[in-house]
Structure formats: C-alpha cells, structure tokens
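Page 47, continued from p. 46.
Same chain as before, 320 aa.
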Amino acid sequence: MAHALGRRGALAVGLGALASPALAQAFPNKPIRIVCASPPGSFTDLVDRVFADQLASLGQPVIVDNKPGANGVIAAAEIARSAPDGHTLGHLISASLTLAPVMVPRLPYTLDDLQPITTIYRGAMAIAVSSRLGIENMNDLVAYVRQRGSLSYGSIGRASPAHILMEMLSAETNLTLENVVYRGEAPAVLDVLAGTIPVAVGGPMNFMEQQRAGAIRIIGVSTAERLPGLPDIPTFREQGFQSMVYTWFHGFVVRAGTPRPIVDRLHGAIGEVMRTQPFLSLLSPDLVPDLISPEAYSALIREDQGRLRTLIEQRGITAG
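Result:
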C-alpha cells in the first residue's frame, strides 16, 4: 500500500510539473489591469502607462486603473480584493507595505494578502541646507543644531520618508528636530531660500536647480552607496551616520495565491520592460532601477517594516 501511495504521489508531482508550463503559457487569457496608487498624469501613472504598453506583448490588452489616496492603502486594498490569477497587477509604493501596516488602524489588508513580484525602482532622501549657513556636511549640521538647541526642517508630512529619516538622525544624535509640514517640497525649498527655515528634506532632484545656482547645498543622501546619477553627493553613512540608510521603493504585486508560474511569467515580462529605453528614460538621476526576485522583495518588505516599527514605537511617531 505504501508503495502504491508513493507511485500516486510521484504521478501527482509529475502532472504538476507538466501543468506549470501550460499554466504560464495560457496566461493571460483576458485583459490585465494595472492598479496605480497615484492619480492620472503623475510620475507613477506615466511609468504604469509605459508598462501597460510594453506588457501588451503578453498577448492581451493592459489598462491602467488609477486608485490614488491614503498613501497607497486604497490601491493595496484593491489588490487584496482581486482574484489570485495574475490579471490584476498592483503598482504599490513602499509606504503601503511598510508604514501602513504599522501606523494605520483597521487596515483593509495584510501583507499575507499580497504576493510581491519585484521592485522596479528605489529612491533616496536628501537633506538640503541654505548655503548662507556655511554648513558643508552632516557633522557641520549637527554642530549647528547643538549650538542652537533645536532645528526646524521642512518636509511634505508627518510619517513621510523625510520625517522618518530625520527621526533616524534624532535617534542617533539626540538632537531636537521639529518637522514643519508643507504641501509639497517646492514650497519648502522657497522657504529655505527666503531664510524662513534653514533645512528642507526630500527627494534630491527637488534641490538640484538651487544647488547648481549656489543657493542650496545638498549635504547627503540616504542610500547605502552614492547614487550613480549623482556621484558628487556623499551618503549619510559615509559621513558616519550609520542608521541613516533609508530608501523608499515602488514595485509590483499580485493577490496572494496567484500560481507561481504566473508570478514568474509576470516577473520575466516586467524585467524585460525595465531594460527598455521608454522605462529607463523616465527615471531621474535619483531613481535607481531595481529588479529583484519575489523572495527578495518579500524579505525587503518585512525587514523594512520591522525596522520602521521599532523606530515608530521608540520615537512615538504618529501620522496625525
């Protein structure tokens, strides 16, 4: 009897192995929908329209369905409600995967509802100071704050990547830092130029024009290594601030339970798009294309979430 069961088990495994390529080849059998976490006309929307155009090579039309709002939570919830067949593809921002599960009560999904496929690009945060202050680097900034007792800096919101980065700095140095919230990074830059605030924190490209003009100095970026597109800007880590390695990311997910052959086919197709000029030409110098395995993406999400949970609880960070 044991021998018979073994033969049936082997037969089942063999049939499964035969079915896997067939399953991938049969996909897609209807239009694919990309759920975009940003509004029409946004950078993320433009990226998704490139993917929609290129992924049509799979043999079915691909449409972009914009579901903006709540820092990506609405889009993530849409994926969690979708069928696990690979025909609904979510382009999610890292906040909906790492920050929201920690900070949003009664979140309408869990990470177990989602199957990561790959990140597509990562972005850095930068600290920019008014050139009039004479601050050349991070150690100068720390000395400046210690002399004055506190520092006000501009960001786009509480629990934003900029806020998280500065809480990392505060935790490492015991500095008193006050987050002044702006409706966008451009108004914060204007206030740095006007002398209203001394520092703004945000994406490096928001500060490049004024840095070239000599009005603002970017004193560091939050990547582990220098950005290939901005090689003259040092990282915080190389200046001795080891905890300030923090990047945000965008990536694609599907509903958990989607068969692995379909996940693999989507991963391969997404990787092909990421090597094309239409995709690469969209990326500014502070964005780095990043194709990783589903397993590596899952590990990245859980590692970042664990790290942020510890910081948020220790620092008492709230979204309100």
